Protein 1
Amino acid sequence: MKTNHPIILAISACLFASPVLLGQTYRDASAPVEDRVSDLISRMTLEEKVWQLNQAGFGNNRNINNIGEKLKHIPAEIGSLIYTDDDVTLRNAMQRKAVEDSRLGIPILFGYDVIHGFRTVYPISLAQACSWNPDLAREASRVAAREASGAGIDWTFSPMIDVARDPRWGRVAEGYGEDPYTNAIFAVGAVKGYQGDNLADEGTVAACLKHYIGYGASEGGRDYSCTDISDQAMWDTYMPPYQAGVKAGAATVMSSFNDINGIPATANRFLLTDVLKQRWNFDGFVVSDWNAVEQLVSQGIAADRAAAAAVALYAGVDMDMGSNAYGEHMVSLVESGIVSMDAIDASVARILALKFRLGLFEHPYTTEIPESQRVLLDSDRTTARRLAEESMVLLKNTDDVLPLRAGTTVALIGPMADNRGHLLGSWPGHGRDEDIVSVVDGLSQRIGNSKVLFSRGCDFEGTDTTLFAEALATAGKADVVVLCLGEKREWSGENASRASMELPGIQKKLLAALNRTGKPIVLVLTNGRPLILTDDEPYCSAIVEMWQPGIEGGNALAALLCGDVAPSGKLAMTFPRHVGQVPIYYNERPRARRDQGFYQDIPTEPLYPFAYGLSYTSFEYSDLGVEKQADGTFRATVRVTNTGSRDAAETVHWFISDPASSISRPARELKYFEKRMIPAGNSAVFVFDIDPVRDLAFVNSHGMPLFEAGAYIVSVNGQSVEINLAKQ
Ligand code: NOJ
């Protein structure tokens, strides 16, 4: 029977257009992701598959009239774009091209380096680690994710969790310091902050653990250089943060630039496939670092770009960032039998799975809402300020020069005092100068313009001393000098290695000159790496390591200088006393002769060790004890009393040592930390529940866990207690 009834026609049109009836499982949101992926792959040509494996750059064009021009150069089938713009309209226009102009309508995955904030830029990761507050760092990542996804970003290339022990390497700024456990804990916080509970939820972005792996061991701190990492060090030091991040559900991993013992990370099948994908069951995808596939040629592991593409894909790199070696060569590599279709399908499947999990097929476009409603909200600024306050580390405070007394007149001097941009750090995201509270603004607002006498004193570098005289005169009129020195933001980060970690000569000279005025000097440092302060420290009554604090830096510093908050940051990376000590870190393995082997010309100890940081109050540790529990675990406890007159937060770091084991262990290893506010005169009992399997076992050079009976030492703030693990 034939019918022309309009209602029946409409119903049948709906039924026939339904993806299920059309057999388009991949368009059916209710189908399992695996089914959607395999259905889609079964429909794709080899060329379409290869496009999914490619990522290119796109953006930086704020002119709406140029959109058409811009889009022309990007194929509708591309898998991913690094979107460097924050213009939602442009992003959506590109997405529309992918969805409407490509045969299968596969949406593009838009990625961006949202490293320590998108528009609300907060402290660099190294500073965040010094806060010892991973919950707050997670909250900041959540803010970044919400701002970024509101601007059309689906995926961030963060967190960077490369354990790094050489401050000459500029990228120490981007990670969480020298300790594997610290990096692991902050990795988990960042992943959860970015990804939320469900990647399809609004305000989330996919995370990317980078740079897998060992990049932090770049020889001599020279960026992109090779690394020699023993198997034991790889498992002990570099892998734990990645293993933790994978377990936390990170959606992607980035392969690193460095060669490892002769096999670059981007060509390293053992590390990418055998360990990451198979042993750890990582089910997301691996993206190369920028041009890292092509760079296999420079690294001497591939004769040309085609070979590089084949080697990288075989190793386990699913997506080629930037070099277009996959784009250019993968089709012919498959046609000539060098690369199998199965290998291509496996990589495409991983990439498509993330697109489905993000809900991109259902919601490819970003809703355009006014910027004022999605970035720099008051609550975002508060998070950024709290994180900056908690990240700053008080390194010295003679005669309680800090906090500043009420009514103090401050000579605020130094090239960083009125600078905005350098407070942002090496990955400023879309942070803008006008968003940033400088030190001079923050302090003037807190204590009043008339109490802040500003004089720049000198530039960041060079030899010009003409501004010294004015700075000295300004110091003469004040009660105290607050001297703001440090590194320009481009002096740390990628491709920003330095052989000297001292302040530039002109800045040191200014400090020495100000010292001659006899005024107490509070040195405030803004930098992206531990600095060598051995010559400078004697000139200062107080030193505050402010790091690169982000847009709320000036307010946070003012609160700290004035005592509105007590400093609670502690170092996540050792400050050497001399560059010749590098690498120097707290968790080295014990020396053969513990009373010998010291430097003859300088003390062997660093200037400021790992976990060091002062407060405006004092804490006393007592009653350290440990008890075995019925379930075989141990409960260690310590009482911490705030013996001063100010409320303040204290972080307790719990270390474990294993004095005799079949593989020598680091002299101390951080296994747990906790930060709590303790009101003046009060005490708090901190607890560390030691799970022997988690906290006392260690891995051998194949990554296999070993669990040995015997004595272990639990230490906290220089006190220790022994536990004994009986033979099972
Ligand atoms: C190179 C950097 O090493 C990496 O960290 C970053 O995510 C990519 N470029 C993309 O910008």
Protein 2
Amino acid sequence: MKNGMNDPAGRTAERLRAAHRVLALTGAGISAESGIPTFRGKEGWWRKEDPTRLATQAAFDRDPAYVWEWYQYRRGLVREAEPNPGHQALADLERAGKEVLVATQNVDDLHERAGSRNVAHIHGSIWRVRCERCRRESHDPTHPFPTLPPRCQHCQGLLRPAVVWFGEMLAHEPIIRIENFISGGVDVALVIGTEAVFGYIQGFAMAARRAGALLVEVNPGQTPLSDAADVRLQGPAGAVLPRLVG
Ligand code: APR
């Protein structure tokens, strides 16, 4: 039987059992085992596609149908995907009565479909659309759209995916939620499946640490946050997280 104190996973599991407030910062890696490609991995989107041709306002203005073909394809992948044990483990923490905020960079809805109820989508949702003309934003699960690009039913303006593209400002609402959660104190911060390329992700992780959290990274690889983490659990989220929460 491993002693929890010298076994990083055991130490983390013990801290999670005692925790009241848990922040989970997630990225594409937590959905990889559900069959959704990551962005920078060896099979990732940005190895095959040029992000500036798919995930920018300029690309959309240039060819909205082309950009929508990619998002329509990704909406299909998300619809066919199922939450994996990594998503389920985070939902189990909530079901165990802990205060959990899942702050995700992912635009899929697998956290919600696993049962997580407190999810902040830092980069928006692939199931939401926004009209370029009247600015109305709504949940639109239509799949597939009869024609691309889809149009607003109110003003016939072009609809775009309501996600954050490169070079765009983050929406305030999810950021405020994350900052408010952290200001209330954090016992454990789990950074799961993200390359942590964006400064705000690193900022949230370090702010959680300053708010009292044990900073735990769950990732098979090394990232810019790895050296700052108190605990590094090097493995796939779908295998590591259930062991922490079980
Ligand atoms: N379990 C845990 N982590 C994994 C797994 C897995 N099964 N598989 C891969 N990973 C890790 C990789 O090692 C990598 O660190 O997930 C991370 C995925 O990194 P990225 O592909 O860069 O995804 P992410 O960090 O979420 O990207 C952030 O960049 O392109 C934008 O908007 C896009 O939201 C995205 C953002």
